[in-house]
Amino acid sequence: MPWAKEEDFIELKKRFPSLEIEVKPTITNLHIPKDQLIELLRTLKEEKGYKLFIDHSVVDFPEKSPRFQAFYILYNVDERKRVVVKTWTDGTLPSVEKLWFAGKWAERECYDMFGIMYEGHENLVRAFMWETYQYHPLRKDFPLEGYANEYLPSLNEVLWGDNLQGLMNYDRMHTPVPTLEDLEITQKRRLKKKAQLVLNWGPLHPGTHGTMWFLFDLEGERVVQCDVILGQLHRGVEKLAENEMYNQFLVYTDRMDYISALCSNQAWVVAVERLLGIEDLVPEKAKYIRTMMSELQRINSHLLWLGTYALDIGALTIFLYAFKEREKLMDIIEGITGARLTISYPRIGGVRMDLPEGALEVIKAFVKRFPKELKDWETILSRNRIWLRRNVGVGVIDKEDVYFYGLTGAVARGSGIPYDIRKFEPYDAYPWVEFDIPVGENGDVYDRYLVRLEEMRQSLKIIEQCVRKLESMPKSAPFFAESPDPKKLKLSLDGIGLKVPEGEIYSSGENPRGELGFYIYSTGGVKPYRVKIRPGSMYNLCVYPKLMKDRVIADAVAVLASLDPVVGEIDR
Amino acid sequence: MEGLLAQLIVMGIKILVILAVVLGLGAYLTLVERKVAAHIQRRPGPMVVGWHGLLQPLADGLKLITKEDIFPRSGNRFLYNLALVLALVPAVLVFAVVPFGPEFEVFGLKVKPILTDVNVGLLLVFALGSMTVYAIALAGWASNSKYALIGSMRKAGIIVSYEVVITFAVMGPIILAGTLSTYEIVQNQIEQKLWYIWLQPIAFVIYLFALLAETGRVPFDIQEAEAELVTGFTVEYGGIKFGLFPLVEWYVEVLSLSAIGVVLFLGGWSPINIPFVGFVDPLFFLGSLSPFVWFVLKVGLLFLFVLWLHWTLPRYRIDQITETAWKVMLPLTFVNLVLTAIIAPIVWR
Amino acid sequence: MIKKVFEKPLSWLERIFFIDFIKGLSVTIRHAFSKTITTHYPYEKLTPPKRFRGFFGHKVVDGREPQPAFDEWVERFKIDVQPGKSRCVVCMLCKRACPVPQLFEIEGEKLPNGRRRVNIFNMNMMLCTFCGFCVDACPVDCLFQSDIHETASYTRKDAVLDLKTLERIGRDWQKRREQEPDRIWIDDQQRMRLWYENDLKLSEVKKR
Prior knowledge:
The complex is a heterotrimer. By secondary structure, chain A is α+β, with helices and mostly antiparallel strands. Chain A has helices spanning about 10-15, 35-45, 100-115, 155-160, 180-190, 235-240, 250-255, 260-275, 285-315, 315-335, 360-380, 385-390, 400-405, 410-415, 420-425, 445-470, 535-540, 545, 555-565, 565-570, and strands at about 20-25, 30, 50-60, 70-75, 80-90, 90-95, 115-120, 150, 175, 195-200, 215-220, 220-230, 345, 350, 435-440, 505-510, 515-520, 530-535. In chain A, the strands form 6 sheets. Chain A has a 5-stranded mixed sheet with strand order 1-2-5-4-3. Chain A has a 3-stranded antiparallel sheet with strand order 10-11-12. Chain A has a 3-stranded antiparallel sheet with strand order 16-17-18. The longest helix of chain A is centred in the middle third of the chain and has 30 residues, at about 285-315. The interface between A and C is large, with 69 and 65 residues. β15 (about 435-440) of chain A pairs parallel with β1 of chain C, so a sheet runs across the interface.
């Protein structure tokens, strides 16, 4: 567990006398009062090397005063250590925008969800909801069902005269819905027009990967400034998490990053297992199965990325070739788990079912042929002069930007920083398999493309090793953990009655898109008190306005596709 | 009097044949493209309507005709409709100067299978090609939409640059043939026993790229780039008007320009050529029908090659397209002209 | 452990003779003359695998219940067992395990002979996430997921499965597919259209 030790911060106590260092097995906290917060963060960033911004949010304690506990998670890449800085506030906080740009977006989200005002923030607008929305949804006094104020009956009633009264859970009143005026106000507040024409790219457009709404301020074909409006797919997952048991929340993690559902499931399950402390109880077979399925899902996700990326740039056949291989992968995943998109196969303590017969043969047949297909596609794309001209030198991200914007995943690796959670904080069977991390040099779009292609090959290597190990295990090996004390810790496949002791943890997993992290704050009981999800795609996206400055619109597609965002994860 | 009446009847038949062939073939080429694209992508393409999808263009045409014809609220209606006419008419008119075969006799009349054999045939082709700029610019302007405007400005820029390139590229074969009339160029190639492609490879490659750029095919289809502009300047057109723009741009224009390419570089209706020696005709058993079959075969092969390129290559960015035209292709055409001027006397003899 | 990725720039020879284009074109033309891989839905369909998570069903009492678990639960809740009817013992474990418990509407009734029986069992598929937790929770192997996935309809009422529909799906499943082995898929012939180029050789289907 790469948490910082107490001796790292002893010398800081001289400069900050009110600093409290709290070290627990699952987390390391630094408590500081609000007026010295920016000083401490700056010292940690510049002198101690905690340069990478992971996350920032707020936990609401309505009975306490001051009411909100804000936390900032930082990471030191060279020494591989993580630390959480906490402070208490009643509703205002100083802004960390000058230290990390990613903090600007995190602060917008906290303002939107909790109503915290940030001093020194350049343009404090709501992150997900529209500007004229009146409530702050994640506060504890906001009910789970929301305030149903609008009259919005079903079309079956309005057009066909059906009487749906008495049908389960149907209600004619609905929570607030934005109108066209609300959206126009949101757009005007977000971007102040400086140049010739403001082009709305999205929210419904075949080129943006999902429902993202981009605003380009154009001068001819050149972009002068650019901004993003998110929230078209916001479903309130963090609010729902406070009402679900730990095992039941697994279903929502599928639907966030719907393309790599198994990896998100695995990240959540590993986080809860670490909080419970039962990592060693999970049987070996389950760990190998989870790793193998995760790597299959990683190839799946990268194939979708490659297909849509090539489609946007104009090579239309690569889309269909990638989907042919994806069909094979989906067949494998469907045969093993039963579903193709929203999978929920891992469980807290193992997996749901053992592998069916024939699964390993099919996976071996797939793995044998796949490198040949990859080579075919590379002959069409990688050294094509049109491809090179479109991609080399476009969207360059240098090393300092990676820290400033909180970038993770293939975006960080394309710029030369070997940041991979599978090597830094290994989970499941990753300590026991051998693989390389591909790292790029220049940080342009072409390097990110090469990095992801190489990642697919490394995933194949991992899958081969897992298959060999699984073939050698006996058929009756267990796939679910046995609880040592069923009275205190009830582990079962359906997860009823799983009580988690008091504590908190931040744990992350390596999604194909970046680092997906879960910060869980538990006050005992079967339901968590606060779950904050750290989406990799959102912090990868916040470098987009900087990359689009002074570029032509045609580059907008290439740059966006190389960052590989998924709106389900950004908006949650 | 009788000679005039006969000539008018012959001309009328030729017009009907060309219109029917061009428009009907244009519609069926959509099916050919869909089938070729589908097989490249490992899927069968349209299979349900008719046997293996042969009636699909009829179904598509019916669907487009019966769709709602929308009009943007503050657009310019006259220019909106005029743009469509300006796009369709010049593209079909190019076929007036394309020779399909050698002169033949029917009922005692000598008939040349070309609508009008003017002695400046090629000049007419390029003049008509330049009219498409008007169509595109007007379509983008009259739609009153930001996306349409950006798309049409891009396309107009490309067409203007590549018109210059294509005109310089074809000067090579014109010098070698010594005439601007399309019929005479093919006759000269047959007399000199030489397809001009053997002497003008650079010009042929440049002509091919200019063909792709003029008609808006990959790698130069920045105008229809779906990911950015969602069909560019045709975004506010609905129904059959929307269907006619790609029909004209992608199919009729490609057909006409590849027919001109075959005439200029590949010897028109002559069979396979061994340079400076003679011709070999594997299809001799077709008798007098053989030249027409060869012409259709060559145009078809060129069209299939254009399709093959479309479904393989990615597309360029707008500033890269114009940069390539002015900085790379135009100087190459000058080099080609100089070389042609040096070796032309060999051919003229 | 760390692998640097880079690609050589194009040489002059490649640029003049368009070798990069020609290589790409050769790949495409090779694919153009290979077999097509798609299944022509709805004229040809693939059979979903045994573990597929489609619509739900109740298995009926036919002598193949998991013993001794079934007898224990029947005794505990005093259930009236009828062959040919659902195995449900009204334990409400499925509703407790579900992430969206509002979709279940379960009621039992007391019969004149003192035993209980399930009376109303409605599942609202519009709220369901098809996760399968309820199937894992059921102690008597009654609730299960079948392979029904073509379920589009015009009204909301069609999305609610009541006890009769569940029993019907259960009877149909037990007759049609319960004896299948737990294999990755069962329709090898159909799947070969996509998998033929991988040289896949699966072992024979063992009939139980």
